[in-house]
Specification:
The complex is a heterodimer. Chain A is an alpha+beta fold. Chain A has helices at residues 3-8, 16-26, 34-44, 48-57, 77-81, 84-95, 137-151, and strands at residues 69-74, 108-113, 125-127, 130-132. Chain B is α/β, with parallel strands linked by helices. Chain B has 23 helices and 15 strands. Chain B has 4 domains: 6-94, Glutaredoxin, CATH 3.40.30.10; 123-332, Rossmann fold (3-Layer(aba) Sandwich), CATH 3.40.50; 337-426, Ubiquitin-like (UB roll) (Roll), CATH 3.10.20.600; 431-515, de novo design (two linked rop proteins) (Up-down Bundle), CATH 1.20.1440. Classes of the chains: A alpha+beta, B alpha/beta.
């Protein structure tokens, strides 16, 4: 199933993180399934436990299915100073969603993350690959509505 | 060569990308075409200009007009007024009062001297400004030990936080005989509030490559890696392009400049873990493992990635190397202060008028940095304190506003320069909240390998939360300092050992804030 991805990388442990990134990015639910872990384990010949250990160590990886749009709000001190707590509250209300949960329609997953290095524009969040900065509660409405609109 | 009467530089960074810079650039091209100006006006993409919060910025040369917060609908007006009629569109010009307050300090810049001026995706612009001259000089005219000695003489110290002398680090690895040695660039910038390495890689990726090449030759490494955090997509893209261009120009690859020296540079990508900024954890991650630190010794310089001698250097450190080799150590030491030479790139955040980056001489006091390079305090509020050096940094009070900012001077006050992140706070900020946020960060990022750090962070979090909930008492404060001291003594790596700095400084310098929460 992951042959195309495996073809790009030699079967060495040092390529593990790359392979996991690519599997996750190509999965519509942006996660790494148990089957994937087994296949990767066979391909690079390391125990499944090692792969699971790596998966759960890094925050960018998920072992659970996630939404189409992953919202990652920065909770580090610079964003905290600029009111990230209010933004979190607003996101939870707007999406009617708990932390690390996915909306029923599979559109959004809400996560917190550490510093994204865009602190000049705090508070900041990423939705998939895109960075959104200088967040305000109004801006959250606009951003979420825009993504919802594009999906229709 | 084509001659243009004007050049428009557009800053491409995360801020402007979010504000739709690509659409605006396309609109600008169309509009210039429509007015038959494409042969007269050149559009160039460059890195960040250094200040933030102004949407899409463009700078027009030679007149040096800076337009900020440009929208697609402004484009026809800019083209008609500025480029057809020669009149500036004053409503879009950066607030001159604010601009006066912002000092680019280009004259003294070493690391970011090209950033915001050149197209980072075009190697010829870098070469045009003297780029890769140092690499040629090093490879053709200098012996590896001469380079190590020059860097030693320059007094360059690691800019990742610890401040270890770079030349000395190289001198441990250089004499080792091994089949393969490695140089690894630590671009896993994760210290909260730090984004200097991102701006260096986005704004001038070739500078990092040139410094890295020189470092490899100096220590005898023929393979190098740049370990970048997974979130830095634009950096990864630009560095990949830069490496491909360098190979195409024969600056990188086999038998470079007919010297017989071969070098290959590869990029490694992380997956989100603060601890991977620690060099041995980074090496573990490169090998495809959980990023847990190793015990030292053996130090990476002797036995690092895949057990090979490995020099690990920070991005900013290495970006200083081309200038040192090109202009000499004596020139470099004219910058900064004794014991701490060169410049430092700071990332300014919080309650200042112009958050962003600045590069100033080592030893520049915090007051000067805030007033002259960051536009002063926002809304003229009173300065209360600053968190300097990221989460693993210290809370400075106004008593230290005039202390020279360099490794040695700050050490006298039990403070650190760290990564160069400066979070400025006005008199409205509650330090209990800030310390809580710092401890929450460490609690999340503790890797779980050793218990003093894992447990210690948990207990600190409980204690600091007590103050938030109005349940704290004075003994809790003493206990917090005691626990962080124990973490300093017993933790496996610098992560757990760092807590003492924010905890002790917050409690000692801002004790009132904690006492006010005691019922």
């Amino acid at each position: 199933m992951y042959k195309q991805i495996f073809n790009k990388y030699s079967p060495e442990k040092e390529n593990l993180i790359y392979i996991l990134h690519e599997i996750q990015d190509n999965h519509p639910q942006q996660y790494i399934s148990e089957d994937a872990v087994t296949e990767v384990s066979e391909y690079i010949n390391v125990p499944r436990a090692h792969i699971y250990g790596v998966l759960t160590f890094y925050t960018m990886f998920s072992t659970k299915p996630r939404g189409k749009n992953i919202i990652r709000l920065c909770e580090s001190p610079p964003c905290f100073l600029k009111g990230s707590e209010n933004i979190l509250k607003k996101l939870r209300e707007t999406l009617d969603l708990g932390l690390n949960k996915t909306t029923k329609d599979g559109m959004f997953t809400l996560e917190l993350c550490a510093c994204l290095g865009v602190c000049g524009n705090a508070p900041v969040m990423m939705i998939n690959e895109d960075v959104y900065g200088n967040l305000t509660e109004d801006k959250i409405d606009t951003i979420i509505n825009k993504i919802k609109g594009e999906a229709k | 060569m084509k001659f243009y009467r004007s050049h428009i530089l557009i800053g491409i960074d995360n801020t402007s990308l979010e504000a739709g810079v690509k659409e605006i650039e396309a609109a600008l091209r169309t509009e210039l075409d429509k007015n038959n100006l494409s042969d007269e006006i050149n559009i160039l993409e460059t890195g960040s200009f250094g200040y933030f919060g102004t949407g899409v910025s463009m700078m027009v040369y030679p007149e040096q007009t800076t337009y900020v917060d440009v929208k697609v609908e402004d484009i026809p007006e800019i083209v008609e007024e500025h480029f057809l009629k020669g009149r500036k569109v004053s409503r879009l010009i950066l607030n001159t009062n604010l601009l006066k307050k912002y000092n680019f300090n280009y004259k003294r810049r070493i690391v970011l001297d090209n950033s915001g001026k050149i197209d980072p995706e075009n190697i010829e612009e870098y070469i045009g400004l003297g780029g890769y001259e140092a690499w040629e000089k090093a490879l053709i005219n200098l012996k590896p030990e001469e380079i190590v000695n020059e860097v030693k003489a320059s007094g360059l110290r690691g800019r990742g936080g610890a401040g270890f002398p770079t030349g000395l680090k190289w001198s441990f690895t250089a004499p080792i005989k091994a089949e393969q040695k490695l140089v690894v660039i630590n671009a896993d910038e994760g210290e909260p509030g730090t984004f200097k390495d991102r701006l260096i890689m986005e704004g001038d990726p070739h500078k990092l490559l040139e410094g890295l090449m020189i470092a490899c030759y100096a220590v005898g490494a023929t393979k190098a890696y740049i370990y970048i955090r997974g979130e830095y997509k634009l950096c990864i893209e630009r560095l990949e392009k830069a490496i491909a261009q360098a190979k195409e120009y024969g600056i990188l690859g086999e038998n470079i400049f007919n010297s017989g020296f071969d070098l290959d540079i590869m990029i490694k990508i992380g997956a989100g873990a603060y601890i991977c900024g620690e060099e041995t954890a980074l090496i573990e991650s490169m090998e495809g493992n959980r990023g847990e630190p190793r015990s030292k010794p053996p130090f990476p310089g002797v036995k690092g990635a895949w057990e090979l001698p490995t020099v690990v250097n920070n991005v900013e450190t290495i970006a200083n190397v081309p200038a040192i080799i090109k202009n000499g150590a004596a020139w470099f030491t004219e910058h900064g202060v004794e014991g701490c030479t060169g410049t430092k790139v700071y990332t300014m955040m919080g309650d200042v008028n112009l958050p962003g980056l600045c590069e100033v001489d080592m030893g520049t006091p915090l007051r000067t940095i805030i007033d002259q390079y960051s536009g002063g305090m926002k809304d003229d509020r009173k300065f209360k304190g600053a968190l300097v050096g990221g989460a693993a940094g210290v809370f400075l009070s106004d008593k230290l506003l005039d202390v020279k900012m360099d490794y040695n001077s700050l050490e006298e006050y039990a403070a650190v320069l760290g990564s160069g992140a400066i979070l400025v706070m006005n008199d409205d900020v509650d330090m209990v909240e800030m310390l809580w946020s710092v401890i929450r960060f460490f609690r999340h990022e503790a890797c779980g390998k050793c218990s003093p750090c894992t447990k210690g962070n948990e207990v600190l979090y409980t204690l600091v939360s007590k103050f938030r909930n109005g349940e704290g008492c004075e003994e809790d404060l003493d206990q917090m300092i005691e626990i962080s001291q124990a973490m300093l003594d017993a933790s496996f790596c610098p992560l757990g050992q760092s807590l003492i700095m924010p905890v002790k400084s917050a409690i000692e310098n801002f004790r009132e804030d904690f006492l006010m929460k005691i019922k």
